[in-house]
Amino acid sequence: MNCDLPGSTVPKSGTQVADLPPVPTLRALTVPRASVQDNGLLDLLVRDDALVWGRQGEGLVGFGEVARATATGNGRFADLRRWWSAVAAGADVDDRVGLPGSGPVAFSAIAFSATSSHASRLIVPRVVVGRTGNTGWLTLVTADPDAELSAAAVEEQLARLLEDPSPERDLGPGADRLVPGQVSERQYEESVRAGVRAIAAGDLTKLVLARDAVAELGSDIAVSQVLRELALRYADCWTYSVDGLIGTTPEMLVKVTGDTARARVLAGTLDRATAPTGDEGYAARMLSGSEKQRHEHRLAIDSLTAELGPLVTGMTAPEEPFVLQLPNVWHLASDVEAQLRVHDDGTSPSALDLAEALHPTAAVCGTPTEAADELILRLEGMDRGPYAGPVGWVDAAGNGEFGIALRGGVIESPTRVRLYAGCGIVAASDPAAELAESWAKMRPMREALNL
Questions:
Q1: Which domain holds residue 109?
Q2: Which of 33-42, 126-135, 225-234 has the lowest mean pLDDT?
Q3: Residue 251 annotated in active site
Q4: Per-residue pLDDT, 7
Q5: Mean pLDDT throughout 69-79?
Q6: Which residues of 99-117 are buried (b: 16+ CB within 10 A; e: fewer)?
Q7: Is residue 16 domain-resident?
Q8: In the chain, how many domains are there?
Q9: Is 255 a catalytic residue?
Q10: CA-to-CA distance for 227 and 248, rounded, in angstroms?
Q11: Is residue 18 part of a domain?
Q12: CATH number at residue 118
């Protein structure tokens, strides 16, 4: 598979792409590495500056940085994709593993809205540790033509990094507090009411409205400690950390492996904190048996399959969703799989291509998308930044994984973290219930920060 778009021209290494930085000439070596640790990649979450994408001990952890590109506006996906295509095309790669995620990779966090002042980014780490199943690997990337590339060199660099862990944080009682963000509770309920009125007027059928809150800490955040807490408590979610954006998302926007794409769609939420004890059928009854919840979920599935349709030759989408059980909430969930269309020039869509095609989904924006997006800008009262945008990684062959940046926050300073949560609004939505749901969705980060 090739990550270039059909008919696109890949700039030569060393040239300039739009307003992006010059394309570096990279060298990379990937070697197998024993991967038998009980906790998998969790054992590597010891540095606050690590780039992380992982679930159940598998995934990628990156250290250091050899190159980065940022972009804003409507062209942010295209600009980053062109830059990465040029980097990948010009790299000298010795990949002795040959799996998705081996060789050079770029971690990415992309702003939700084209109007956002937050810069979308791709970051190429110097050292990457990967693990899938019982297979592990190490990658060393450099822009230095004279640097040593050997298994011993990459092991030595990793050892030095792990010998310098970030300090832990005392999670006992202290001066930490959670304060209102740009959107107060009252303002959020008012925006939900306005959204319900717009739906009743026929302007749209679903709208996702978000709010924020700010964690003010009495001492510096320990990012690696927070990530370990999230990964252990929410093992079925994808834990991520990209340049100050941290969290653990239950929703996979798209995973591309060769010519196969997969997605996990969530819509329909039930707070576990309010559930009666001893009622084993409560979640299924309240979610699968709820017309409101099933309607919201069907809108999300229809949105995904409509966007994927022109890019695939076949798709499997279940008729009935399943109930995903997480420590804080239950969700209605569906897993979708599709075979990507191969173009005449032999290319097929990359993970970045599909992330652009699918974003924003109905699960984080609404239906129809354009009307919902415009109403969010009018009603929400804040810049989402990277919240609810694609977060993940892409490799040189176009394989990759992009989740939706949910259940997380943005580190604004060593002692300040902005948390975000959003809820799907439909005709039957109640403002007080949606506010309560937003608090439930902030619970993973609040718990990890001991708030």
A1: 27-448
A2: 33-42
A3: yes
A4: 30
A5: 96
A6: bbbbbbbbbbbbbbbeebe
A7: no
A8: 1
A9: no
A10: 8
A11: no
A12: 3.60.120.10
